[in-house]
Amino acid sequence: MRYVEICGDEEGGLHDPQDYLGLRRTWVRGALNGKWSDPGVPHKGWRCIDLEDLGEGESAICEMCEVREIRFVHRMEHSEYPDTLGCGCICAGHMEEDYTAAHERERQARSWSDRRRRFGISQRWRLLGNGGQYRVKDDYVVFVDRVASGGWTFSIKNRERQTSLRARKIYPTPVGAKMTAFDAIEWMRRRGR
User: Fold this and answer.
1) Boundary-marking domain end, from 98, 120, 142
2) What φ, ψ does residue 177 adopt, rounded to 5°?
3) Would you list the DSSP string of 39-82?
4) How far apart are CA 36 and CA 97, in angstroms?
5) How far apart are CA 102 and CA 112, in angstroms?
6) 50 and 23 inside one domain
7) What is the tens place of the pLDDT at every residue in 19-69?
8) Do both 63 and 93 map to the same domain?
9) CA angle, corner 154, sides to 148 and 155, nearest 5?
10) Given a cut of 90, is residue 76 above it in pLDDT?
11) Are residues 43 and 112 in the same domain?
12) What pLDDT shows up at residue 183?
């Protein structure tokens, strides 16, 4: 039985938490890949220090099982192991012995990624006379403009607090500028700006 066949759907996630928790017995039989078979690598007691989204169309191989192709990388650390490991959801859940937490982390990351992508390609963007675009999101007005060098930039204004933020980088596409503006809005919101 191959590890990949028993760890979830094609995208590396599980949609039903009951299915996720029910995989434990089946998973153990297939866990003889990679570092799982190395007695020098701790199998339990890890903690997740970060979750990285590699982006749509990008992937890496889980560093614990060394089989599963993953998009969302759970960065795991252990006091008795010198390196951090980039792992998939299933391995991370087993390593930290909290399958629900790993699944919830990845669910939130997928949700964030989907909202960010939809913001960038939404039909709610309106054209300006200068060729730029704008959109209102909650109390924020986002402007995306072409710059002389051929790239795109953005600026954000909070209508309620009268604060603003301007991009420091130039982005190759308007969608890239919009998706980064989405991140900036969330940053402003967390800081009360």
Assistant:
1) 120
2) -65, -40
3) TTS--S--EEEEEEE--TT--EE-TTTS--EESEEEEEEETTEE
4) 14
5) 16
6) yes
7) 444 444 344 444 568 999 999 999 999 999 999 999 888 999 999 999 999
8) yes
9) 120
10) yes
11) yes
12) 92
CA 58 to each of CA 20, 52, 53, 138: distance values in angstroms, whole numbers, following the listed order = 24, 12, 9, 31
Specify whether 9 is located in the same domain as 92: yes
Q: What is the pLDDT of residues 77-89, one digit of tens each?
A: 999 999 999 999 9
Backbone angles phi, psi at 62, to 5 degrees: -55, 130
Residues 6+ apart with CB under 8 A from 32: none
Residues contacting residue 173 through CB under 8 Å, at least 6 positions apart: 152
What number of residues does the chain have? 193
Domain count, the chain: 2
The helix (H) or strand (E) run that includes residue 99 is: helix 99-121
- If you compute the radius of gyration of the chain from its CA atoms, what whole number of angstroms results? 21
Query: Do 85 and 166 fall into the same domain?
Result: no
Long-range contacts of 170-175 (CB under 8 A, 24+ apart): 174/133, 174/144, 174/146, 175/120, 175/121
Cα distances (Å, whole numbers) of residue 152 to 66, 90, 175:
39, 39, 9
Domain of residue 168: give its range. Answer: 126-190
Quote the CA–CA distance of 63 and 69 in Å, as a whole number: 10
